Amino acid sequence: MKPSLSAVLIVKNEQQNLARCLHSLSGQVDEIVIVDTGSQDGTIAVARQFTERIYEYAWHQDFSAARNYGLSRASGDWILSLDADETLDSSQGGLDALLAADSGLDAYFLPLYNQNPATRESTVHQVLRLFRNTPEYRFQGSIHEQIIIQDPKRVGLAVHPIIRHHAAGERERNRKRGRNLALLRRQLGTDPVNPFLQYYLGLEWLGLNQPARALPLLEDACRAMAEDQIIFRTPALHYYITALKAVGRVDEALALCLAETERYPNYADLFFHGGLLLEAGGEYQIAMDWFEEAVRSGPPPPFFFHTQGCASFLALFHIGYCQEQLGKRKQAIRSYREALNNHSDAFFVIYPLFLAVLNELGAEPARDYFLRNGDLRDGQRGAILAELFFEAGHPGIAARCLEDPEIRRHVQPAQTVHWLLFSGQPGAALAELNQLTHRENPPEPLLEERVGALLLTANYSAAKRDALLLWRLPGSRIQAIAYLNLIHWVTHCRLGCRPEAASQPVIIKTLVELVENCLKARAAEKLVTASPYEGLIVHTLNVLARLSFRGPVALDAYFRQKAELWRKLCQFRTGMKGDLTGVRHFGELVCDRQG
């Protein structure tokens, strides 16, 4: 007979998270038990959509007491313990197989995946969340509660399913950290040398960006934890190294990595940490050796805390970066390619790979390279590459990428129009706009693109009409003034109005961006005619020169910035040493555009 399974959760004000969590349990559990500790939002109403087993429990600053109360209300043979901000991912394997195995085990560790919203770092560690419904398995500790294992031989390690943690917003995270700090301090007062409490308290301080306060706690925790407590000692090491780095004690962090690799010679995360420290110090060759050792080590044993990618795509990415700094661009391209092939969703690798390939091969051969490697047949990667080609001054290639329907599906309509408009195809851009918009009330980004397209096709009356529509939108009023002045100059050779000083920076920025895009269009591949763009550039420069002294100053700054960027790109192409801040800024700019 199949054993029954109860999911048990304690909740408080989890209206935003609870439905997502409970949906993930569909078909996986026989009953859901909810213990509410004082919700004042719609948590109870959400819970009622999934279960009638809802209990109220007075909060006594003790998580274990609340969880154990929930366990006492569960009727299943087995219990799955979850939090409302978690989901159960059964896509690769569910709970049925574990429970039907009749392995003689009483409990299982499940992998918990967590992504840091600030760094986008994804980590995985094992948590004891699935266990038989017996009095032996009960939580202990008022905060960061754990089940103490009596007989390790009766506890197994599962690969699937996995638990995914979904981070809250920064404000909510900080609120919970404040609550946790108070509970941990109180508990640590009665047990001041408990390494687990020190670890968790250090973690909270680190999360609040207080590494100096976290450091002694994490140091003491690492020193006190025994070898058989690896499930806690390895994350403590990770955050201890992070805290040392954050307070500037880089040499100590590197020495710690070196010492701990003697203890854990196949722990890729330590080699990766060491590589990052050396890379930051400009020791690229040695750093590369450490990253290569991380790849050779492979994923660590299951109970080790692990940052995803340390033994694969992240290490390969940093190997490529180090190779670039050493002037080995062809090798760097191979490393970046291997990183992307290893993890197809590692989109951040595309940016340095693009720059390296573009500078090594040129624009059209670069397009052929990405086509040959399948990147321009993948919708998401193709959309990123198309944007990169556009930003690098090759709008024609960007527009040609739109011929692939998968890529087009991943490109915003306004961006599609933008690429067509400034690749020498204003007529095609207008045709696209006519399919996308209703003339009476088009979306704001498309309306601005349509003003540009009408200007480039010399339809000035329609351009003025649309600029006035743009003016009626409060968020676009200043941009509309820029276009209205430009239209007035084109048709009457004078400004329509002299805007207030406070509006001038936004107007100047709008017009300078128009010049920049028209310059891109003049260099576009297979450009039908450059004259509309050349004419618009001249008109726009005239408006900028007559608006105020700020216009010529902004233009001068723009062209100086472009000249400096090209100088640095030339250094990058020829392998000369130099500050590559401009190249990095280019990648950051496109990252921001991709959102």
Automatic annotation (TrEMBL):
<feature type="domain" description="Glycosyltransferase 2-like">
    <location>
        <begin position="6"/>
        <end position="91"/>
    </location>
</feature>
<dbReference type="InterPro" id="IPR011990">
    <property type="entry name" value="TPR-like_helical_dom_sf"/>
</dbReference>
<dbReference type="InterPro" id="IPR001173">
    <property type="entry name" value="Glyco_trans_2-like"/>
</dbReference>
<feature type="repeat" description="TPR">
    <location>
        <begin position="268"/>
        <end position="301"/>
    </location>
</feature>
<dbReference type="GO" id="GO:0016740">
    <property type="term" value="F:transferase activity"/>
</dbReference>
<keyword id="KW-0808">Transferase</keyword>
<dbReference type="InterPro" id="IPR019734">
    <property type="entry name" value="TPR_rpt"/>
</dbReference>
<keyword id="KW-0802">TPR repeat</keyword>
<dbReference type="Pfam" id="PF00535">
    <property type="entry name" value="Glycos_transf_2"/>
</dbReference>
<dbReference type="InterPro" id="IPR029044">
    <property type="entry name" value="Nucleotide-diphossugar_trans"/>
</dbReference>
<protein>
    <submittedName>
        <fullName>Glycosyl transferase family 2</fullName>
    </submittedName>
</protein>
